[in-house]
Write a structure and sequence with these properties.
By secondary structure, the protein is of the alpha+beta class. It has eleven helices and 27 strands. It has a domain of about 80 residues: Tumour Suppressor Smad4, CATH 2.60.200. The protein is about 25% helix and about 30% strand.
């Protein structure tokens, strides 16, 4: 790639198309379009109008990426490809009109869809200079040898990419969980919240377009707050009255479990998970995952910038890159810190297990816990679970017996990650172990 060319990198995920200049994300644009007569609104502007204009709102055009006709068409907007073209034009304009774009795309795109994308780009006022699998690019920012499964959520699907990391990061398989994406999650949560408004305020926000839009506008903040918060209060104003409803976290998780379960059925328990930050941000999704790492939102862009020359094929034709060198200079971020609970200082990994006023350090080995109150580095016969640090220093609990083990009252089936303030109970009515972070006088973790 011509290093003097002004180039931006575009990650195509219709939950939120991201554009970066160098490593910094400069634009986030959801894959939503709203037709208003001959005017087209895309991205955030469309999201704010989606439920005010439901018949002319479209959110599958990036997912389909074809020339299927729109159910409501105009002279200038006839099919999905027209919406993709116009959204690309807007993204290009909002990104400062760079000379070139390099695309990181989901592995679910077929050869025909990739050809369609490049054909549309050829009609735009920029040059397409690269095409790479987004999961490969994100994983190349880790570069630890082994087999992985990369999991990322889109609006209408979840994409699971299996990869081998040695000298190169190579894609070996791609699987999609069709129709299980952020759109389904938002619909489920909106329905739940509407039921709570009816129960608590005798008001149905889905009955009016304006209040339905208001409800959906609050969903991102609601899900963010309930990643760690116990309860979220929502307010919707209608006809000079403010209606309120409270959404407890446990009620939300119960509603989302069937959706999560469908995705988890496709996840291999034998492989460590690399979870996209969009999916990891959903409350409770990672609670019962096996060993996992959250991929930083900028990892794709760092890899694309570093390996821009390898991604850009020589000659006028672009190849779809599904293998990149494994790099050692960039390390993956630790799982994204949650907002602190009211009784928990923010953010870091646990260092000790607290039981009966004694703090037991979690070191390089494995610690075993029992329902009788034993904390030991030698596995006893009554061991209910074990705790050990994974490769990025996060404490992972593993269930070892049929004794019920729970974290903060939530049962653990196989494994679960721990953070400061978590309480683990072994057996019904059994003892509690608290997980804490101990610092020295300089503010560093005490081991």
């Amino acid at each position: 790639m011509n290093q003097t060319m002004n180039t931006c990198i575009v990650e195509l995920n219709d939950c939120e198309i991201r554009v970066a200049n160098d490593d910094q994300i400069i634009l986030r644009s959801p894959g939503v379009a709203v037709l208003d007569k001959e005017d087209l609104h895309v991205g955030e502007a469309a999201v704010k109008k989606a439920f005010l204009n439901p018949r002319t709102t479209f959110n599958r055009y990036w997912h389909k990426l074809n020339q299927d006709a729109l159910p409501v068409a105009t002279r200038h907007f006839r099919h999905h490809a027209d919406l993709v073209y116009n959204h690309l034009l807007k993204i290009h304009q909002q990104s400062g009109s760079p000379q070139a774009l390099l695309f990181a795309v989901p592995g679910s795109y077929s050869g025909e869809q990739l050809s369609m994308l490049l054909g549309i780009a050829a009609a735009c006022p920029f040059s397409a200079v690269g095409l790479v699998d987004a999961a490969v690019a994100g994983t190349a920012a880790i570069a630890a040898t082994g087999e992985y499964q990369h999991i990322d959520i889109h609006l209408h699907q979840t994409v699971i990419t299996r990869l081998n990391v040695a000298d190169n990061v190579t894609r070996t398989a791609v699987e999609t969980v069709a129709e299980y994406g952020l759109h389904k999650i938002y619909s489920a949560v909106a329905g739940l919240i509407a039921d709570l408004f009816i129960q608590q305020s005798r008001f149905d926000p889905l009955h009016h377009a304006v209040t339905e839009q208001s409800l959906y506008d609050q969903l991102p903040a609601c899900l963010q707050a309930l990643r760690s918060g116990r309860e979220m209060q929502l307010e919707i104003r209608h006809r000079d009255r403010t209606h309120q409803a409270k959404l407890p976290r446990d009620v939300l998780l119960h509603k989302l479990q069937p959706v999560y379960a469908q995705i988890r059925e496709h996840i291999s328990p034998a492989l460590p998970c690399l979870v996209g930050d969009r999916l990891a941000a959903l409350p409770g999704f990672t609670d019962t995952l096996p060993d996992y790492t959250v991929i930083d939102s900028e990892a794709v862009f760092k890899s694309c910038r570093k390996f821009a020359t390898q991604i850009h094929s020589p000659g006028p034709e672009l190849s779809f890159i599904t293998s990149l060198p494994a790099q050692q200079t960039i390390t993956v971020s630790k799982p994204a810190p949650l907002k602190p609970r009211p009784d928990q200082p923010a953010t870091e990994n646990v260092t000790h297990i607290l039981y009966r006023h004694q703090a037991y350090p979690i070191g390089d080995g494995t610690i075993y816990l029992s329902g009788a109150g034993h904390v030991t580095n030698r596995k006893p016969e009554d061991a209910a679970c074990s705790v050990a640090l994974n490769q990025i220093g996060v404490a992972v609990l593993t269930v070892l017996s049929t004794v019920q083990v729970s974290i903060n009252g939530r049962p653990v089936n196989k494994t679960g990650q721990l953070q400061p303030g978590d309480r683990v109970q072994c057996g019904k009515g059994g003892v509690d172990y608290e997980f804490i972070r101990v610092l020295n006088a300089h503010g560093s973790p005490q081991t």
